[in-house]
Amino acid sequence: MGTVAGMLTEARKLLGLAESPPGSNHNYVTAWYGFDGPWCDMSVSYIAAQSGNLSAVMGKFAYTVAHAQAFANAGRWHYGLGGIRPGDIVFFDWGGSGSIANIDHVGIVEAVRSNGTIVTLEGNTSDMFLRRVRSNCIVGYGRPAYGDASPMPATDGMLRLGSTGNAVKKLQGNLNTVMKSGLTVDGQFGPLTDAAVRAFQSKYRLEVDGIYGPKSAAMMKAALAGKATPVKPTPKPPTGALVVDGIFGPSTCAALQRALNKHGASLVVDGSMGPLTNRALQKYLGVAQDGIVGSITVKALQKKVGATQDGIWGPDTTRKLQTKLNANTF
Questions:
Q1: Among 34, 49, 208, 286, which has the highest number of CB atoms less than 10 A from its own CB?
Q2: What is the C-alpha separation between 180 and 119, in angstroms, rounded?
Q3: Which domains, and CATH codes, for the chain?
Q4: Which of 295, 242, 235, 299 is nearest to 267 (CA)?
């Protein structure tokens, strides 16, 4: 069985890994896995295999929902960020539902910061393997069975009858604010708190089970802000002039999305090169809009930015694109 340090060492070796071409879901990680597709979880599997940790991460996965469920089935799953440690496998739902069924991204925790954020190592983020800082849209995490793994937290991150502590105190205070429940804020999840949670869930049309989990927490956040439904997280992409470095990262992708919107696209500027961005780029370049950035699309882009038209999206093409985007001439 491998170690946390071994897992992180192998993950850092992938930093800067891109797709060839961008948008193709093709690189040596997907070649190792066996097919070209969204590769965030493939990269976790690849890294685990290289560090002797494939069984520790529950096996080889490409589907994030199945991977998270495997951790849950093994009793190695925790909702939210409580107790998270380096080496944990953290799962995201960009829609903010907090549900395993809606997970659509995954990364490896590299560090946990005192301000409540985590540093992650992630594949298939802006078509690359990059280091990110995250705090939002986290459903939960799985703790691999490393040879030197920390024990799992005492609870799974859900508050229910019998739970105690500061998290229960916060919940009781929030229920008093939103529902006028009149609870004693004592940190003891007893019958009165259970009834108040159920009343809250009923009012906001949630599953009435008395368990305060991610969906209830998302609704509580909205209710405290005077909203009747959970607020979908708003992407916060990088802004400002681009560094002309030939690296197609989130800043360049966000700038490209803004430029495409000026040409009639209606993209969410999130710094992620997904199928909608690919099609918008293809429409602007006048090529077939299949959502896959292949050699024809790349040659059209290279012609547009003045790069050598070889159909390979490399650093020179990106540098010329970055220059055009900075000059507002793309």
A1: 49
A2: 38
A3: 4-142 (3.90.1720), 166-224 (1.10.101.10), 250-326 (no CATH)
A4: 235
Q: Confirm if 217 and 99 have CB atoms less than 8 A apart.
A: no
Tokens of 317: 């093409």
Number of C-alpha atoms within 13 angstroms, CB side, residue 325? 27
pLDDT tens digit sequence for 256-275? 999 999 999 999 888 877 77
* Global confidence as pTM: 0.72
Provide CB contacts within 8 A for 16, sequence distance 6+.
128, 129, 130, 247
Q: Are 307 and 242 in contact (CB under 8 A)?
A: no
Residues in the chain: 330
Strand bridging mode 138-142 / 77-79? antiparallel
Beta strands in 15-145 (DSSP E): 77-79, 89-92, 105-112, 118-125, 128-134, 138-142
